[in-house]
Amino acid sequence: MEGKIIVVTSGKGGVGKTTATSSIGAALALEGKRVAIVDMDIGLRNLDVVMGLENRIVFNIVDVVQGRCKIDQAAIRDRRIDNLFLIPASQSDNKDVLTTSGVERVCNDLRKKFDYVLMDSPAGIEKGFQNSIVGANEALVVCTPDVSAVRDADRVIGLLYARSLEPRLIVNRIEPSRVERGEMLSHEDVMEVLSIELAGLVPMDEKVLISSNTGTPLVLQNESKAGQAFRRIAKRLNGETDVPIEIPTHKTSMWNKISKTFGLK
Description:
Blueprint: E1 4-9, H1 17-30, E2 35-39, H2 47-50, H3 61-65, H4 71-74, E3 76-77, E4 84-87, H5 100-113, E5 116-120, H6 127-133, E6 138-143, H7 147-162, E7 167-174, H8 176-180, H9 187-194, E8 197-203, H10 207-214, H11 225-237, H12 254-262
Parallel strand pairs: 1-5, 1-6, 2-4, 2-5, 6-7, 7-8
Antiparallel strand pairs: 3-4
């Protein structure tokens, strides 16, 4: 049975797409699946840093597509999570160096070697995006609860539908206290606009920055609420339909509850 290729994309940069890709990939590997994460952001790679593998790069996805090496030579095995591999992007080439036909050929080979392949698409809708989706079976759209991110995500969703891909939504960096104050869109607002199936809700978590800076997988940090959310998303992707979607909530102190009840300031 061939593996699945899932493209992880977004309408704009800065919404946490790379963190989502690395975390979901790591979580799927923890479920016992053989997983490859492919950085398709040619010229601006950063998955290797997020995963703590920047010092072990020899070959990259451009080398694979152009036939300079085999997949097994470019795939870097993570030393902390069994069956998790990274194929990094090239830092010295530009996005025009890859062809969709070349990427599609490599995707067919990747399906034979891995249970899941996560393609970390560059933000936007240009050639890097087209290359990232060419071999995909499924799509995840990462969006933060702000108007500009939702607008750009809507454009990407339309392009995915045009390629017969049924996208699912991850609403990232939810801050319940700001939602309560009306300073941030709620996940219901985002879903109403985008009208696609929800894959999961991820709260704002300061441990994400620590994870990225240290190269430590977020899903290995038991106290990380974002890490827990990504693990639940991975279970859903892996076919566990009974995993509930947890809505991030704002913990209200007892004094705040009393003040609200009695109208105290």
